[in-house]
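Figure 2 data, in text form.
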Amino acid sequence: MAGAAVIGPSDNNYNGKVTWYVILSCMMAAMGGLLFGYDIGISGGVTSMESFLKKFFPKVYMKMREDTEVSNYCKFNSELLTSFTSSLYVAGLVATFLTSYVTKAFGRKPSILLGGAAFLAGSALGGAALNLYMLILGRLLLGVGVGFCNQAVPLYLSEMAPPRHRGAFNNGFQFSIGIGALIANLINFGTEKIEGGWGWRISLSMAVLPASVLTVGAIMLPETPNSLIQRSGKNDNDHHKAKIILQKIRGSADVETELDDLVNATTSLSKTNNYPLKKILERECMPQLVMSIAIPFFQQVTGINVIAFYAPILFRTLGFGESASLLSSVMTGIVGMTSTFISMLVVDKFGRRALFIFGGVQMFICQLAIGTIMAMHLGDHGSTSKGYAYLVLVLICVYVAGFSWSWGPLGWLVPSEIFPLEIRSTGQSVTVAVNFLFTFVIAQTFLAMLCDFKAVIFFFFGGWVLVMTCFVYFLLPETRNIPIEQMDQIWRHHWFWSRVVGSNSA
């Protein structure tokens, strides 16, 4: 409580500091991001392993090994193969609507617990798969787990963190995704060398370890004060519980100001609690709704999941061997994790808008450069020179760095911090649903688009990066250092959104 260990400066708006209690709680919750990242990295790696393709996708294997007439851009084009990757996101899309109810009615903690348990079952089934049906069923269970975790974890981090450090805490989710992807890439690189062609089983089943940690750890997590207040109504006993937790996570006995804001944020719950979808469609919530749709949509059309899901396949298209392709993915994983850590350090200093815009410009330039090199130096047959292949690898790393300190972490941070408490869970569900919908679309169509568009695919994604950077510049107000329960004021001071919701008359 008041005597808890603390680090960091005090918050401008509320009493309290960053305590080890809140750090450890958020680190455990962020394990949900590690599971998501692990799955992204693993699926991209195993789909480039010849033993995996030979067992589950023999037509792709034969086309890759023996058909010299097929274009470099089309060797991996298979709807069945993309279904392996994208099926997870269909399940996550469906699960997120159930998660919205669970998160709102029972709290953030139960959703994280259920997500870990579903991921645990999916990992075990995937590693033991004897046929394609078992493999896809395992992916669907993983999707349920990801749906629960991606809905609940960003909310949990934003609500537990002090306003001054909310960006750093929430970016821990993306940092965990980066760690998970890097671990997966390292495991893929090692298991590919196992004789007998069963290394992919280790890759798929190793997710059992972090899933077990999250499932057990979630039992010990404290519920967020926001969630306790939201579900308590006017129950003084639950308000007292929320106050005790708030004192522990802030390291101060004087938390009345923040507690009062939380209680005041529930004053409209009696009118909106049973109709959150009606509330989110009202004019005063229109800016938040637009952001909850636009930001995750733009996050996917950056083309990042082209790299995340299919980097080893892309590197093989450039002429790298199986092992070299997996090693290249390890390199991009290291770059992504490091860049996200940098974002954690600077997001609360420089703000969300600056990182969004800087990262967007960086990604735009890289997409144009990669597309130009592939258009000029990679034909339908043969491979590009090693020099150009390595140059593309460097550009991909720079592109991943740009995403990892901007649209990667901020794509989860901003939507999780802008909604009023009474519709925050519903708003996060919209964000996750849009994210999963377009992740599915990209995952399912990319290999076909690569076959049809060839190098032009990178100009396609580059164009979207330009559009979304302009969107942030003109339409996204800064959210840095603003208490989460006072976030509604930013729209009333914005040049455009004030015309929609009305200006602040105060």
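Caption note: Residues 424-453 form the longest helix (30 residues).
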